[in-house]
Amino acid sequence: MGSGEWEKIKTYSPLPLCSHSPLPPYYTHAMSPSTSIPWSADFGGLALHGAQFPAHSERGAVLLCHGYAEHHGRYGRLIQALNGAGLSVYTYDQRGHGQSPGLRAVVDLNHLVEDHLKARAALSGLSVPVFAFGHSMGGLITATSALRDPRGLAGVILSSPALLVGEDEPALLKTLSGVLGKLLPRLPVTALASGGLSRIAGEVSAYDNDPQVYRGKVPALTAATMLRLSRAVMAGLPGWRLPTLLLHGGADTIADVRGSRRFAAEAGDAQTPRPTVEYLEVEGGYHELYNDTVQAEVTARTVSWLEGQIGGL
To answer: Total domain count for the chain?
Structure first.
């Protein structure tokens, strides 16, 4: 599918080589790009742990927003690929995650959106096009940020975004979630099974044994604000203005794939011309496609999409 086309759903199956061949010795998400330097934005006095991974012969920049319970250090392989394509990467551990301050995973997602907008402001002076990448909860944060203010972004990449939260939960429980979030913000309410992250056992094991990954249940405040934010994004989809690459695994048990399908079908409906939305739904894919059996293919597709966007500017 070309950069000027739009499809509601695109299915994509892993190549036999990727599915059945032994993993190469470098197959690890923890691989570190060759060069990184500390980076931070003005987060209102909050010292979030960030890093910049500059590319040689820079053609563009990517602001990378990680998902719930994890940290930006899990994206080394993707960052290497982006650097190799001339794309510098800027990223940070969100508050309450990784090496950043805050109660572990107890977050009001509205604050995370404000942090994202401040990170974008810090990149506003760059002389190259800036793209925003967000995975899972980070995809929800990125989408909300882009809806509130699309200025300064050349495009968005959403990886298994948490756009449809609590869809099958009872209405009463969803109503009460806001009360619980306010009265008992730390209350553990929802468990996420790490087995749904990847079809590669080694990737799941690496996640489970990563000391910077939060392994408890989702706290009430986090769950409640995630629910409210996802509703707001869905309601605002007709106003979406940016070219987007959207990727989701068809067998994702952590982030509801129906949210991505709705995004692909409805994003930018009210805009003329309608922004391009390329949707890649990986048949059988799990939550972390960049750490799944199709990691090579989705990484190549991501780089190709970015190169196409840059070439069209």
So the answer is: 1
